[in-house]
Amino acid sequence: MTLSVLAGAMLFAASIQVGEPTVEVVAVPQVPVRITNPVWHTAPTVEPSDYPILANHLGMSGRVDVECQISAEGVPACEAVKAIPEGLGFEAAAVAIVERGRLTPRRVDGVATDGQLKVSVPFIPEPVDPPPSIWMGPPPSNANLLAGMVAAQSLARDRNAASDFDWGLHQLPPERAMKVQAWIAEMYIGRTNAKLLAKGIAMVLAKRGETSVPAQKPADWDDWVREMDQAVASIYSPETNFAPLRVRVCETYDCGSSYVVR
Q1: Rounded to a whole number, what is the distance in angstroms from the first to the last CA of the chain?
Q2: Closest-CA residue to 75 (of 125, 112, 47)
Q3: What is the pLDDT of residues 194-224, one digit of tens each?
Q4: Rounded to an integer, what distance in angstroms lies between the CA atom of residue 184 and that of residue 77?
């Protein structure tokens, strides 16, 4: 090959340009992910005993926001994230209620996985009918009322005190339970407001024409006790009995407008 031909071949080779490789993009249709969220399989059951005891006595309503982790087996594990009012036992009651239920689990493309659930649990006390007026007797005088208060304090030693369980103090935070316990000891004999019991005794004194309860139990003491119970029952209602305690509780702790007068 002559020099001129060789030079021409090199010039031809230099003029060849190698382009970028061509890649053909083919669209692949996307299959949507099928997600099924948890739904109730067995709805939670509610029992009368679920209502916090003290809140029920005081006629307090409430609401609790609950958040749950749902296992792949549909079992909820819950916690209360907000309660109105707080510290009366609504939180634990709401969690216990929701955790009784069972759910179909969250499924992703048919496979059971963990999921979440948020639910709000309301609490509304049942209304209580006022008692019939069955007492027949003259209204008590101021002297009768004073004697009734003295007798009520004396009778407190003979009557069984209501337990902390009867008042639901075990459902309260310890510090709050101690405060409420002190208020109860100050204002109540058993579960009856001391002033209400004193008025019932005064009504019996007025009816019998007596100025005081006998220091020694007379032969007809059982009749006295029966009449006192009847007198208290004629003026008793949950509102008149428990309103003084509710006032103390709501003056100290935030109750908002969460009570229902029954």
Answers
A1: 119
A2: 112
A3: 999 999 999 999 999 999 999 888 999 999 9
A4: 36
pLDDT band at 14 (very low <50, low <70, confident <90, very high): very low
User: In this structure, are residues 90 and 123 in contact, taking their beta carbons and an 8 Å threshold?
Assistant: yes
136-174 residue pLDDT tens: 999 999 999 999 999 998 876 666 556 788 899 999 999
Q: How confident is the model at residue 2 (pLDDT cuts 50, 70, 90)?
A: very low
The two three-digit tokens of residue 163, written as one number: 């337990």
pTM of the model: 0.77
CA dist., res. 140 & res. 195, Å (int):
14
Q: What angle do CA 101, 107, 109 make, to 5 degrees?
A: 165
Can you list the pairs that 171-178 forms with residues at least 24 positions away whose Cβ atoms lie under 8 Å?
171/52, 171/53, 171/54, 171/88, 171/89, 171/92, 171/93, 172/54, 172/87, 172/88, 172/89, 173/87, 176/87, 176/253
Alpha carbon distance 125, 234 (integer Å): 22
Q: In whole angstroms, what is the distance from residue 163 CA to residue 181 CA?
A: 10
What is the spatial distance between Cα 228 and Cα 187, in angstroms, rounded to a whole number?
19
The CA distance from 243 to 193, in Å, is 9
- Residues in CB range of 65: below 8 A, 6 or more apart: 80, 81, 82, 83, 118, 119, 120
Between 80 and 23, where is the model more confident? Answer: 80
How many Å is the Cα radius of gyration of the chain?
Answer: 38
